[in-house]
Predict the structure.
Amino acid sequence: MKMLPLEAIRVIDLTQALAGPYCTMMLGDLGAEVIKVEPPGRGDMSRGWGPPFIEGESAYFLSINRNKRGLTVNFKTSEGQRILHQLAEGADVFVVNIPRLGSLQRGRIDPETLQSLNPRLIYCAISGYGFTGPKAGRGGYDVVAQGEAGLMSLTGEPEGGPIRFPTPMADITAGIYATIGILSALLARERTGQGQFVDVALLDSQVTWLANVGGSYFATGQRPPRLGNVHPTITPYQPLRARDKHLIVAVGTERLWQRFCALLSIEDTIMVDPRFAANAQRNEHRAELIPLLQEILGKEKADHWLERFVAAGIPSGPINFPDETLADPQILARGMIVELEHSLAGLVRSIGNPVHLSETPVTYRLPPPLLGEHNGEVLSGLGYDVRQVEGLREQGVV
């Protein structure tokens, strides 16, 4: 069996909802041993997010918590805090998404406390606004970050209102950046022997989606307009409708424009029109160009055009519904659908990890845990016997 990239790395996951669990799931996919710590009785808040539920298990929770063992701990109790301290002493990474430093300090699980116990510990905090700045400590949610970061003001049709991205893009982005930060800190620790604090905010993470938009604003000082499905600086680069459905055409260079025109048999008409001679002119006269292209493409079905575009090397693709995407032979061939057997829900499918490593590939070893499923196993590893574990359960500690 090939070595796992994060083999022998232990992660304590004290997060709920999406950003934190997504981060720790990625670390688990890379081979880390992840212990998911949840409040006794109710667990991660996402266990209640539904429908849909599968045999009482939330599909939302199941989608982002594979490759973890489950432990319940009430860290508001002194004994619960002692358990978390023991876990931190033997861990490499500790991840939380509690936004207020004061709350962490009261629970004695703040960075200073845990890193005094284990100076090699990588402590990662994922929150709405981070631990510095005038908004530090505020609660954060995906939709708030999408709006505050400026993305929702750009999403939607020009004459419409702001539109939320339909999946939790701020949460997932923060989870990805947290993963990058943790991996970077682990590499730095190899050189220095010292752990560090990783501070990741949903708002910061969402702002990074303004990369090219921000560049244009810095260059012009002008507020970017809402453009709908068109690209601000490339034409045609947008959905167009064939006879039966929409497809995407991305003509990003002049060479591609020439091929595109030849394929549509418009090299002697539209291609030589001075309004459309180069990309800058096509952007300026987009409102005149797109209806002309639309009239041509509407005469044939999408598959007809896509087959010809692919053969000509013109970037293009269908606009799929999720069920079509999740059955796409390319997605299946890339291993992007994970199947794991769950003790209650049966065969559980989730979206795979997109990182393909040739020598140390990701693995999918554990289904999402039941609430407290591995209490005995994890606590016995800390030296608790069966009688002590039962006593902790009776006291409401686990």
Remarks:
- The first strand starts at residue 10 and ends at 14.
- The first helix runs from residue 19 to 29.
